[in-house]
Design a protein that fits this description.
Number of domains: 1
Protein name: DUF4240 domain-containing protein
Distance between the termini: 39 Å
Oligomer: single chain
Shape: globular
Largest sheet: 3 strands, antiparallel
Order of helices and strands: HHHHHHHHEEEH
Strand order of the largest sheet: 1-2-3
Helix content: 40-55%
Length: about 180
Amino acid sequence: MSNGRANALVERIIAINWHAAEDSFEHGTSRAWLMREYLRRAALWVQELQKEEHRPFFDVAQSDRWPFFDIAQRVDPLVRADEEAASRLDEFLSEHASSLLVGRVCRAALNWQSLSEESLAKFPDLPDPFEPLILLFERGGGFWIENGFIDFVASRVRLATWDEHVAAEPLTLLDVGTLDALDEE
């Protein structure tokens, strides 16, 4: 059930050490790869959802929404996170999240986990877009955007339009061993 997934996500976010600066350096490479994977997955969702809307997904009035937007709202405009889970998340983020952007991303991920299986079944071939971001946070907290790049202290990822990320190389394994190996390269 979606409430179970939503509560599990809140627990994961609460367990993150948002002030672990040493992890930002130690896991900089894997965090950059995880961001690229998020961008690729989000771009796949934009590409698919745009087919249904029959108009540009991000027009001039909505240009600020890429790449961190509430994908769940596009899948099902009626989706709402469990009130208790949302309150717990908001309370935690108000004290611990490193930026408003990180808070917005976490709330969008919570809405994603609140989608019904029926809503997700309409898109069986598309991956969970937010898992790479949650793993990124777990490996060293937040990030910021500056001068067209997503910055992680030790690494940066170029921020481009969604269609530039659709064909990016996928990060197919998101396990700790694979991510640690990326950091050792």
